Every structure is written in structure tokens, then in C-alpha cells.
Amino acid sequence: MSTKSQLFFLDLGLSNMQHGVSQGRIMTCDGDGKGLKAILEGVGNQPDGLGITEDHMIVIPPGATFTPKQLHLVPKHGKVYWCDREGMRVFRANLDGSDIEVLVTTGTSDADRLDQRNWCVGIAVDHVRRFMYWTQKGPSKGNKGRLFRAGLDMPRGEDSTARSDIKLLLDHLPEPIDLDLDSEENALYLTDRGDPPFGNTVSKISLEQDVVQKTILIRKLHEAIGLALDVKNRMMYFADLNGSLYKSKMDGSDEVTLLSEIGDLTGVACLSVA
């Protein structure tokens, strides 16, 4: 049985600067693009990752993470996962911000930070199979982006700087950004901001039987970034920095532009309601 979808997405607010600081906001609309409104203004300087909870409060204070990007909430287990771009790390914490853990560290020095191949951006978590997936974007449109996988449990005697269970799944991606997971089909979905024909796309990455197969589903976006799956209804929603919000079936068919020129869009989240 199909359900209704409520979309939430972020506007960086680059076109609404005050005293040199962009005025980000959280927007919402129905799954068909109707009922557009801002539900929270002035959420900070260039917000990026988005998850759905009942409250708005700071749980990870300034200084605890460098440049947080996409995040993934696992309410059933009381956890939030996120990538830290220039911080070159993957984090996990309790939903109230306690018990912050560094799961992956890709660099530690200023020289490491200059290498954008170390920048962690998108994340997806499979609690059933006990895996996490993340992107390291590489230089802008540089075809040096990568997709990795590691376990949710740290190998015994190891730490975030040298994990033996990290596996490189895909290399030479244009500029991979956000991820989402269809756990039923064991498949990842990925936005890529790099140059066409392989960039500015949404792709499906099949992980069945540990064989990684990437298929481009959507092309010709304008700086593709935010992504959210509605697995119940077999739909996906995605956004680009040019200010457009789109939907399509999860196989990429029936693509529709829901909204256009509504800001500088980044993260997207979807809530299915009865």
C-alpha cells in the first residue's frame, strides 16, 4: 500500500547573506512539490546534512567536528552517523550528542587536508548487514572520487587511522557526494557533482554477492547533491545546487522537476506517512 511523502530539504542561503554569513533554512513540501514553506530560518552558515527528528537543538557543539556534511540517523539504535569533510573523518554519536566516536580517519595534518581525496562527504549505514559506506569526493570535477565500505564494529585492537576492514568499492568517480541505501535490494544510490557524461548524475550501485555494479539512472543535473529514497513507494528525491528539487521512480524513470530556483539546495530527507 502506498503512503504519502513529506520532503524536507536545506537551502544554503547563499543568496541571502547577512554580515557576510549565509542564512540557511529548512524547507518542506509534499511529495508532489505542493505546500512549499520554510519551517526554520537562520539555521546557520551553509547547512548541508539533514535527518528527521522531533526537535531542533545543537547536539554536537562547535569544535567537535570540522565541516559536517551528510548525516544518517538510526533512531532504532539511538545513533547518528556523519562525515566530516575537511576534518577527514567519519563519526558516530548518540542522538543526544553523547559518546562521540571517530570511526574512520583519512588524514591528520594540514597537508592531508589540502588533498581533497581525503575529504569524507556522503554516508549511508546498513545496520542489518553491519556496514557503513562513505564517499571521498576528490578535487572538484577531478575524477578522483572514491566510495568505501567498512564495518560498524571496529576491528579488535585497531583504531580509526588504520582499519583493516576498509574496502575500496569504486574509484575514479567524477565527484561523489551523497548516498542513500535500499537495504531490501542491497543497493546504494549516489549523487555525483562531476562533469558529464558521468557526473551531475544519480546512480544505483548494486552490492549483491559482493559484486559492485554502477548504473547511471539520472543525467544532466546542475551540481547534483542531496538525495533521499522513499523505499516504501519506490521513489527517489534529489536536489542540485542550482535550486531544483526532483523526483523519479527508483529505476530513474518518470523524472519530474518538483520545484526550481528556490535557493541553493543541498541535503534532502523524506518521511513517509500514512
UniProtKB/TrEMBL annotation:
<protein>
    <submittedName>
        <fullName>Uncharacterized protein</fullName>
    </submittedName>
</protein>
<dbReference type="InterPro" id="IPR000033">
    <property type="entry name" value="LDLR_classB_rpt"/>
</dbReference>
<dbReference type="InterPro" id="IPR050778">
    <property type="entry name" value="Cueball_EGF_LRP_Nidogen"/>
</dbReference>
<dbReference type="InterPro" id="IPR011042">
    <property type="entry name" value="6-blade_b-propeller_TolB-like"/>
</dbReference>
